[in-house]
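ASSEMBLY PREDICTION REQUEST
Request ID: AP-0331
Submitted by: J.K., bench scientist
Number of chains: two
Total residues: 1016
Priority: normal
Notes: Please return the full assembly, not individual chains.
Input sequences:
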Amino acid sequence: MSFHPNDVVRRGRAASVIIAGVLFFLLTAFFRAQVIHSEQALLQSEENRLRQIPTPAPRGKIYDRNNKLIAENVVGYSVALLAQNEDTLRATLTRLRGTINLSGKQFEDAIKRFRRDRARPTTIVQDASFDVVSVLEEHRMEFPSLIIQTAPKRIYPSGVAVGSFVGYTGEINEGELANLAAAGYKPGQQIGRTGIEKQYESQLRGQEGIQFVEVDARNRIVRNGRAREDVTPAEGKPLYTNIDLDLQEYIHTLFGDTLAGAAVAIVPKTGEVLALYSSPSIDPNRFVGGVSSAYYDSLNHDPRLPLLNKAVQGQYAPGSTFKLATSVIALEDSLITFDTRMPQACNGFYYFGNRAWHCWKKEGHGSVNLTGAIAQSCDVYFYQLGQKIGLSRLVAGGISLGFDKKTGIDLPEEKRPIFPTSVPDYFNQKYGARGWTQGSHELNLSIGQGDNSQTVINVARFYSALATDGSEPVPMIARGAPQRTKRFLLDSVTVAQLRKAMMGVVSEGGTAAAAAIAGVKVAGKTGTAQTMRFSAGGKPLYYAWFAGMAPAEDPSVVVVVMVPNVTFEGSTSAGLATKIIQHYLHKQVTNTIANTG
Amino acid sequence: MSTVRRINVDLPLIAVGIALSLYGLAIVFSAGQTDVHTAADKAYRAQAVWIVVSIVAAFAVSRASVRLIEWITLPAYAFTIVLLLALLVGLGSGAGTASSTAGWLTIAGHRLGQPAEFAKLTVVLMLARVLAQNRVAPRSMIELWKPMLVAGGPLLLIMAQGDLGTSIVFVGIFFAMLFWAGVAWQLLLLLASPVISLVLGFDPRIWGAWFLILLALVLWYKPFLGEGLFVVAANVMMGIVGPLLWEHMKPYRQNRLKVFLDPSVDPRGSGYHVIQSQVAIGSGGWFGRGYLHGPQKRLAFLPEQYTDFIFAVVGEELGFIGVSIALALFLMLFLRVVRISERANDSFSSLVAFGLLASWFTHVLENVGMTLNLMPITGIPLPFFSYGGSFMLACWLAIGVLARVSSEGRGGKVGPLRV
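STATUS: Completed
Returned structure:
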């Protein structure tokens, strides 16, 4: 043991230096952490304790042309949880089940939402009833990580009446999330599912707000607000439409609860869609926040197909409404004039290819010119006109008149009509090279049968061209600048003459005598196309069309009505269209009076 | 007798001890002030009582002469060994970060204390006794068999409880006291070399470099041939055993070591403590986020905020300034004890003082270093700060002994106490 004082002092000095050195080293480490790298730690600490609770934004309101509300928002409640991991989420959900009713689906959906975005509060109940909210508020202390917040809920005051075009909103699903990640969509958010809600999603969706809450290490909310300035949600932009809500609701009542079909009313010069209705319609309010399976099943099993939008999705043989197209093609090619008669007069039949092709009128129309043939819808005349035009030109003409295209209406559901694309490839491909004859297709196409199925909106588009100078607009539900394209290679005088021919149909003796309105003249065309289906009594069933416009001299409205699966005699389309025109024009007349004082 | 019985009180020592205890108490109080209920919210009351009890006990100890202490060393040491053995036969239970260990003496469900805390004290005394017997400083390993036995016995017993952290303290005490006894640093390094090989064994290249240095050291210091060969062989062994030992380590210990190397490997699990601690300290900045107001602590992100990670609360709430003050107080304490060791009347007293210093120093280095991930996480407390009765008592008993050694020592304005 060397405890000579000199040795001790030497070791003491060494010890002091080592101790001071080590503590100084620790101090520099703290200096580095607390002074040099403090920012990151501070950020991390804020990240630890602050949770961003998204506050949902109200969607933009939707208005009709008279600024009546089509869609707005009411106050609803959503229930969410801040969970640390899946196990705690499951545990809390299980405990929640002791307090409120949670279905197995809600349970699993919550887990799925959590897996998609762990940082976001997991929505448990999208649209909680007031009862649920008050029960949860009572048990607040037991569920410290529970978030109950007001969430604007979409509501459509006119309900079923507007279901055909407005669509509905729903919670964003996995597929949409994957596709729209760039647009900033988050799980649990609402998104436009169908109709104009979907079409104008980017305009209608608002900007989500942020509420900052302070949480502890187990994600329990310690206090609301005051942690950082909250960001208030921004409501989506309003959407102003061309819809005439009054007319739309009127059409809804016209169809009633039993009649299936579709009706479209548009302003021919601008393409403004005044009304678009498919019957039976759906109640969009019942789809918001998740449709009940009972309601969805009832829609899905209804033989009248309410889930099929008959105005823009359903494809139906246009029947005689297509005869105007046949006429336009013939006139464009100068094959005929309005006075041209066909070689064979109508005696109810036309013999071609070893069979008799019937005219709808068994007694026949006798010898008629084009004006008479349009007015009386003589099939025999148009059979021969079709042959005169030839299949290639008939198909090419139909294509150039837009019968193979979407109208471009601002509804995402619109389907492309069915129409031959070319001759003879289309037919060879469909029927085989030897499976078809040119002649029978000429005859069928000329009267709107055969390989020709149109949407109601596309027929309305074509009739808009007839209602003007042969140019057609893109039908638009949302207000905006009209887009028009010259479609007919005819002058406006010729088009006016066609309208005049269509007026014949509505006067006494025409096929649509029911469509004459006192005070205003209507031009129109019926169509009765075979469905190849039969009624219970064995009678054949038809697609009953009426495409009309008024006033005939200078139409301000085009109305197309289609009622599927009716007997020949049971056609109500012209009557429905007349009532729609009447209702609309009556209104317009009063408006004019009001405007002139 | 007309002689005035004057006790030469080492005022700086007592003052620093009290300052550290009060600082610690203030932090324990703050640690209990959280937004969510934790076990810490009433801890400050018990801590205050323990401080008072400890100071009284320290005063009592300071009345005992060093000779008396030397006299009871052997029985005290023997008693400690008995207690440590008792823990192993089923009277132990765990707590805190060391909940997987069995450090608490528990009889009929009552926790009576942590024998390991007192073992530190008695091992220091026993080592001092053994080392003081040497006339000259040991020059070879074989001469060190007694101190090795004295420190190694309790060390192994505590390791057997699963408390790695506390056993590190014994290593610290052992080497520091050998140093103070005048053992050459080369010999200390040779002695420590197998452990160094064990640690460096993970990377063959680093181990290889170390081995070359070791060979040079052996040639320079020229130990006995047998010892030299033994050291070299032991290092080779450890280089091989190291990786094998790793395989057989308990998973929680493996994790702690892995996390020490990179806390982000397990941010929610083992790395959580040290990440949150670093965040708390770092966010404190220069002046801290205000006493009682540290968000990391308040919102319970900081684990063990009143025991093992209490220094993170200092860092978060009082900032770099608060940390500097705490470290400065520790420095003052340590330098004061170095001085006491230097001026002690006899080698036993001197070694006791230096051994107590080594114990504190190891605690501070390990505990404070751990909060910034400079040291691996081991559940050892911070003297005078961490909540805990046994440890506070042990710290103040040490102050009592030091005060006595100081008053019996040379130097100072007043002469040593004469009864």
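REVIEWER COMMENTS: Chain B touches chain A through 53 residues (CB under 8 Å).
SIGN-OFF: pending second reviewer
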